[in-house]
Design a protein that fits this description.
Blueprint (H helix, E strand, L loop, with lengths): L2 H14 L4 E4 L5 E7 L4 E5 L9 E6 L8 H4 L2 E3 L2 H11 L18
Length: 108
Amino acid sequence: MNDECFRAFLIDTLALWHVRGTVEAGEAPVVAVILTQQGTTVWIERPGAGTPLRWLARWRRADEAPGSARTLRPRACASVVGLLNALRAALDVERGSPLRIAPAPDSA
């Protein structure tokens, strides 16, 4: 997925989660910068070649200092699903109820 498509995916994700904010291109290696109306800033990086992990996420909430631990030490995510979990935590988005699929009961 190229960077532009990835940012469009993040815009759709924010809309789905009802999070008001913007998604902008970042300065390399940052692929996207998310700025929310609540003041949270999230930086998403795509590590260079040869790195076993695919994504790095770091964030700072409005009430945190610029040199906070989350800003200095990013959360490593091995997949887009992991990255979405990190974003959900950063943006305080409720997970909701999981969907469970089960076989229909026997009607004997």
